[in-house]
Design a protein that fits this description.
Oligomer: single chain
Order of helices and strands: HH
Largest sheet: none
Number of strands: 0
Helix content: 25-40%
Structural class: mainly alpha
Shape: globular
Strand content: under 5%
Number of domains: 1
Number of helices: 2
Radius of gyration: 11 Å
Length: 63
Amino acid sequence: MGNSGINAETFQSNVPNIFFGGDAALGPKNVITAVAQGHQAAVSIDLFCNGKDINQRLDPMEI
């Protein structure tokens, strides 16, 4: 079961310093989706901890 208090792009909750990934974020899907969501949550956490805008993300197709 997903949580509507979580941003589906950044995986930040409605509490600014709490992030979720995988099944805990948007509900069960499959292992590939869970890993991808966990990765995006990790990107957001890194940006947040470094004082950067979590919405300014690199385009994965340009890396």
